[in-house]
């Protein structure tokens, strides 16, 4: 049966990078993969067309899709919207929440060819392979009450950091299973020295550990984890953490791999349906100039093939194609350095396409 992929380019560099990833999806179809592609509007693009960052039509298409490929949302032109429910980011958050995409996988993998592009010394990052498992539909991003209101003569802003045991347990199981398939080490990152919600988080992770005797569980406070990620990142195998800590730590981890433009992601629900997107944003500072690195989005397609479509061989073929263009010395500006050849977004996409097709 043909599987449905919904493509949501979004804003800023979103359309440029998804166009390159769609080339690869089409090549997968040419190679025999039975998929149909559809497009939709989300974020600022949804707001401009329908007055909503997550138009009903887009949500319907998303629910009906097996997998979604999303570019990025947001931009300065929407930052001042009075009604915050109309902000582009609400479109993305609404998709995650409505589809129950609680399990966010963010693999920080260093391609050996990019050791020189990392902001850390090559010996600190060479061989780096970390999987960050971020809870995506709870925590402080969604907790109630939230808002800005008048209290005792001044305005106060407030959010609620809340996790239930069942929310912690289900993301914990994703992470333990992931660690089991990798190197058997799981580090749970929290702030259990201060925040009750993460005291509970730690307790639940401890309890789960009994079901995974083959996985070595450790705990780390988030401030130390941020430091350890830039001091000695190879100590980590799988990291599991809440929504906001995961957001922040994954951007830091991205830089270890050379650029935020290299970090793909998968966001999964219990039925295996997934949304796939680069971890970076809409990069308004470079939008429309052919400067954006499309590899995080292309590698997100590989994750889609692996985690939703169960097409591991095609996923690996994409990953090898990326390796091959890096071998050729091709680099978008964010990962370029002396001795490499600077290319545009589309040139990079075309090179990956060619390397993909050249394989059998
Ligand atoms: P950003 O990730 O968009 O950009 C941060 C920096 O990284 C910028 O200098 C940008 O040029 C660079 N960068 C990002 N992606 C790149 C790529 N593929 N190739 C080369 N360089 C790249 O983060 P920001 O500037 O904080 O946010 C910009 C907008 O994006 C905001 O509206 C924010 O809300 C939104 N955002 C969206 C997502 C998403 O859609 N998943 C994620 C993060 C931020
Ligand atoms: C990400 C982004 C989003 C997040 C924003 C745009 C809502 O930063 O996907 O990492 O904070 O989760
Ligand atoms: Mn982020």
TrEMBL record:
Cofactor(s) annotated in UniProt: Mg(2+); Mn(2+)
Top-rank EC class of the record's enzyme: oxidoreductase
Keywords: Amino-acid biosynthesis, Branched-chain amino acid biosynthesis, Cytoplasm, Leucine biosynthesis, Magnesium, Manganese, Metal-binding, NAD, Oxidoreductase
Database matches in Pfam families: Iso_dh (PF00180)
Cofactor remark: Binds 1 Mg(2+) or Mn(2+) ion per subunit.
Residues holding NAD(+): 281-293
GO biological process: L-leucine biosynthetic process
Function: Catalyzes the oxidation of 3-carboxy-2-hydroxy-4-methylpentanoate (3-isopropylmalate) to 3-carboxy-4-methyl-2-oxopentanoate. The product decarboxylates to 4-methyl-2 oxopentanoate.
Family of the protein in this entry: Belongs to the isocitrate and isopropylmalate dehydrogenases family. LeuB type 1 subfamily.
HAMAP family: LeuB_type1
UniProt: Mg(2+) binding residues: 223, 247, 251
Known pathway: Amino-acid biosynthesis; L-leucine biosynthesis; L-leucine from 3-methyl-2-oxobutanoate: step 3/4
Oligomeric and partner information: Homodimer.
Gene name per UniProt: leuB
PANTHER family for this protein: 3-ISOPROPYLMALATE DEHYDROGENASE (PTHR42979)
Classification via InterPro entries: IsoCit/isopropylmalate_DH_CS, IsoPropMal-DH-like_dom, Isopropylmalate_DH
Residues annotated as binding substrate: 96, 106, 134, 223
Principal subcellular localization: cytoplasm
Gene Ontology CC entries for this record: cytosol
Species of provenance: Modicisalibacter xianhensis
Enzyme Commission number, as recorded: 1.1.1.85
Residues at the site labelled Important for catalysis: 141, 191
Catalyzed reactions: (2R,3S)-3-isopropylmalate + NAD(+) = 4-methyl-2-oxopentanoate + CO2 + NADH
Annotated Isopropylmalate dehydrogenase-like domain residues: 4-352
Localisation: Cytoplasm
Name assigned to this protein: 3-isopropylmalate dehydrogenase
GO MF terms, alphabetically ordered: 3-isopropylmalate dehydrogenase activity; magnesium ion binding; NAD binding
């Amino acid at each position: 049966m043909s599987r449905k992929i919904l493509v949501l380019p979004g804003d800023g560099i979103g359309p440029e990078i998804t166009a390159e990833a769609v080339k690869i999806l089409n090549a997968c179809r040419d190679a025999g993969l039975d998929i149909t592609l559809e497009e939709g509007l989300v974020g600022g693009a949804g707001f401009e067309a329908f007055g909503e960052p997550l138009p009903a039509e887009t949500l319907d298409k998303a629910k009906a899709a097996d997998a979604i490929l999303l570019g990025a949302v947001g931009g300065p032109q929407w930052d001042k919207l009075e009604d915050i429910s109309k902000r582009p980011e609400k479109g993305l958050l609404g998709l995650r929440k409505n589809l129950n995409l609680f399990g966010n996988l963010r693999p920080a993998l260093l391609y050996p060819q990019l050791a020189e592009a990392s902001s850390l010394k090559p010996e600190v990052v060479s061989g780096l392979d970390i999987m960050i498992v971020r809870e995506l539909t709870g925590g402080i991003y969604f907790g109630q009450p939230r808002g800005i209101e008048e209290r005792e003569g001044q305005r106060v802003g407030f959010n609620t950091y809340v996790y239930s045991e069942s929310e912690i347990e289900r993301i914990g199981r994703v992470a333990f299973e992931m660690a089991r398939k990798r190197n058997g080490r799981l580090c749970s990152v929290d702030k259990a020295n201060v925040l009750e919600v993460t005291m509970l988080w730690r307790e639940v992770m401890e309890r789960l550990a009994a079901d995974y005797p083959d996985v070595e569980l450790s705990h780390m406070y988030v401030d130390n984890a941020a430091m350890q990620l830039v001091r000695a990142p190879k100590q980590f195998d799988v990291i599991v953490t809440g929504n906001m800590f995961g957001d922040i730590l994954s951007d830091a981890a991205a830089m270890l791999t050379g650029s935020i433009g290299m970090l793909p992601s998968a966001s999964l629900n219990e039925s295996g349906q997934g949304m796939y997107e680069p971890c970076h944003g809409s990069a308004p500072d470079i939008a429309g100039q052919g400067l954006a690195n499309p590899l995080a989005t292309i590698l997100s397609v590989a994750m889609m093939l692996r985690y939703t479509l169960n097409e591991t061989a095609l996923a690996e073929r994409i990953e090898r194609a990326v390796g091959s263009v890096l071998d050729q010395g091709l680099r978008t500006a964010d990962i370029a350095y002396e001795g490499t050849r600077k290319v545009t977004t589309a040139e990079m996409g075309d090179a990956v396409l060619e390397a993909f097709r050249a394989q059998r």
